[in-house]
Amino acid sequence: MKKIACACLGIVCAMMLTQCNNPSSQTGGSDSTATSKDSTTASSGSTAGFKIGIQMWTFRLFSFEEALAKVDSAGVKHIEAFVGMPLVKGGSAKFGWDMTDADKAKVKGWLDSKGINIVAMGVISPKDVAEWKKAFDLAKYFGLSYITAEPKKDQWGAVDSLAGAYGIKVAIHDHPKPNAYWHPDSVLAAIQGHPNIGSCADIGHWSRNGLDPVDCLKKLDGHIYGVHLKDIVAFDKTDAADTVVGKGVIKFDPVFQELKRQNFNGMMSIEHESNWEHNLPDVIETVKFYNDHVAALK
Length: 298
Description:
One of its GO terms (molecular function) is isomerase activity. With 298 residues, this protein is α/β, with parallel strands linked by helices. It is built from 11 helices and 10 strands. The strands form 2 sheets. The protein has an 8-stranded parallel β-barrel, surrounded by 4 helices. The protein is globular, with a radius of gyration of 26 Å.
């Protein structure tokens, strides 16, 4: 019996030694750990702060009143207003800091009646600090979270100070080359030392500039106040046409996943610059795409 026990012990030891010296076995264990870590990373973060909105430039051929009805039809409750949009069809009054008190009250009434709120406005590039102050006054009136803008370099300090005083952030937008902010590094330069300045990440324009949107989002981690949601038909082509989100060259699941990892707490504004006269169905399709793909995030 003693001999049998010793023999069994020897076999077990030999098997353990073989297992420990087996490279494929070690690799398998390592891969399992890596997979586990990757899964943890992929499932981190939250979408609780996500909200879908519409950049009113999408409906630029219509009045603010008409565009608001389209936003309502799409089932969206958040917008990014654009300065210069006529308030009513055929009227001379436009959305902006030159609106009369009566016009501002009228717009607020329209918003309240549909349960829609203005989260941001843009893209603006005020000519001087006095005009910036007017923009902030308007933003304060409507309770905006941020202003989407492309400020001049010599305005960075003043804009940051105003943003801090008003409690309203400034999100720098990226247009295609040769725009001053086409690359996230140029946005980071403006953010440096200016805690109230961040990014409005235009996913479509980054792709037009030949940049990977996910890489750009990672560079701006912690500084993204808003997103412009659009898709395009060709990568690395500054004049590439828009298409419905999900039907172009941009892969959105990694984009949504990265924003989730960052715990993005802001609005993704649909900015559909195509099919201008009849683009409401395109917008509705994009809203569904967003809802389905964000809900599927793990």
